[in-house]
Amino acid sequence: MLIRFHGRDHDKVHEFEDSVKLRDALLKCDILPSTVVVSYQDQILPLSTVITSDIELLVTTVSSGG
Question: What is the phi/psi pair of residue 23, to 5°?
């Protein structure tokens, strides 16, 4: 199964053999989950979402700092 993360700051594709939680997929692609919001068809996905098939997800970087 292929997962593509794309957005202003990211464009990564990774192949997974089995279903995977969104948080784990982000980490495999070297994207820190705490710094982004992930959406699919204009719906924000929780990091606990389990992905079971090929998908393209929009990654929006969230600004934070002190």
Answer: -55, -45
